[in-house]
Design brief:
By secondary structure, the chain is of the alpha/beta class. The protein contains 6 helices and 8 strands. It starts with a helix and ends in a 9-residue tail after the last helix. 44% of the residues are buried.
Length: 206
C-alpha cells in the first residue's frame, strides 16, 4: 500500500499547485488560436534532447493548457517517473499536459549539463503540444528535485513541486520571477535527512 499512497500524494500535490496557479482554467482549457498544434495522446517529441514521454489528454488537444515537466529520481527514467507518480491520470483529470524527460548520464543522475538540454526539450515540446508558456510547472523527486530547483532559477516557471529534494546547494538562486513552491520532505528520510535539506531553495538579495 505504500507505493499507491505515495503516488496518490504526489499526484494530488502537483494538481493542487497547478490548479492554484491557474484558477479554473486548468480544468477548463481556453480556446486556442488556429495555429495551435494537436499532439497525439502519447507521443515522442522530435528534436528534444532529453527524450521526453509527452502525455496530452484528448480534451487538451488544440487548446492552450499548462505544461508540467516531471524530473525523475536518481537512477530512474521518464518512464519510471510516470509509473511511480500517477501524474498521467491526474493530468487527464485536472486538464494539464505532462512530460517525463530522462537524464543523459549513464547512471541516470541529473547533472548541471542537463539544464540547457531541459531548456531545449521544453522548447521542442511547444510546437508539438498546445502549451500555455506562462503556465510551466516543474516537478522533481529526490535528485530530480535538485534539478528542478536549479532549473527554476534559470527558466521562467510558474511553480515548482519538490519531493525529498536536496536543495542546500542552491542558496545563490536569484530567479527573474519567483515561482510558487511546494516542498514535501519526510523527517524520517534516510537518504537525504530532513535537517540537511530544509534550507530555502531560492534566496534573493534584498
Amino acid at each position: 500500500m505504500r507505493r499507491p499512497f505515495r503516488s496518490f500524494c504526489i499526484a494530488v500535490a502537483v494538481s493542487g499547485v497547478v490548479l492554484a496557479g491557474c484558477g479554473s482554467s486548468a480544468s477548463k482549457p481556453a480556446p486556442a488560436a488556429g495555429d495551435c498544434p494537436s499532439a497525439a495522446a502519447g507521443t515522442t517529441v522530435a528534436g528534444a534532447p532529453l527524450d521526453p514521454i509527452l502525455r496530452v489528454p484528448a480534451a487538451n488537444r488544440g487548446r492552450r493548457v499548462p505544461l508540467v515537466v516531471a524530473l525523475h529520481f536518481a537512477t530512474g527514467s521518464g518512464a519510471a517517473m510516470e509509473r511511480n507518480t500517477g501524474l498521467t491520470g491526474e493530468a487527464q483529470r485536472a486538464g494539464f499536459d505532462i512530460a517525463y524527460p530522462t537524464a543523459t548520464s549513464s547512471d541516470r543522475w541529473w547533472r548541471p549539463r542537463d539544464l540547457p538540454l531541459l531548456r531545449r526539450t521544453i522548447a521542442a515540446i511547444e510546437p508539438t503540444a498546445c502549451v500555455d508558456r506562462s503556465r510551466l510547472y516543474l516537478v522533481g523527486w529526490s535528485n530530480g528535485g535538485s534539478a528542478a530547483v536549479r532549473a527554476a532559477c534559470e527558466l521562467r516557471v510558474a511553480g515548482v513541486v519538490l519531493f525529498a529534494a536536496a536543495v542546500n546547494a542552491e542558496r545563490s538562486c536569484r530567479p527573474a520571477r519567483t515561482p510558487s513552491l511546494l516542498e514535501i520532505h519526510g523527517t524520517a528520510d534516510p537518504l537525504w535527512p530532513y535537517p540537511r535539506a530544509r534550507a530555502p531553495p531560492c534566496r534573493r538579495r534584498a
